[in-house]
Amino acid sequence: MRGSVTRISRDGAGSILAEDGKEVHFERSGASRNGADDLRVGHWVEFELQYGFERPSAVNIKRLHGDAGQHPRAPNHS
């Protein structure tokens, strides 16, 4: 799946707005394994969903070239 980072907390957890319009939570560990531990709001990413007890989470997050301007539903943070 692909989407744009919409929120990041101080502890590194955050949210991604997926291409299908759903908000997906991620933990810092889901990003740092792939060298994407420097994610920022607006970054365009590719990820996989991992289904847990409460909700699906984004894992194996990889930053893609470009930014959220390429995402049709991305919020404008300028």
Secondary structure blueprint with pairings:
Blueprint: E1 2-8, E2 14-18, E3 23-26, H1 28-32, E4 43-51, E5 56-67
Parallel strand pairs: 3-5
Antiparallel strand pairs: 1-2, 1-4, 2-3, 4-5
How would you explain this protein's 3D organization?
The structure is a single chain. The chain has one helix at residues 28-32; strands at residues 2-8, 14-18, 23-26, 43-51, 56-67. It is mainly beta and 78 residues long. The protein has a single domain, classed as OB fold (Dihydrolipoamide Acetyltransferase, E2P). It has a five-stranded mixed β-barrel with strand order 1-2-3-5-4. Strand 2 (14-18) and strand 3 (23-26) form a beta hairpin. The protein is globular, with a radius of gyration of 11 Å. The N and C termini lie far apart (25 Å). 23% of the residues are buried. The model is unreliable at 74-78 (pLDDT under 50).
> Mean pLDDT across all residues, rounded?
82
CATH class: Mainly Beta
> What is the CA-atom radius of gyration, in angstroms?
11 Å
Assign the CATH superfamily.
Answer: Nucleic acid-binding proteins
Structure class:
mainly beta
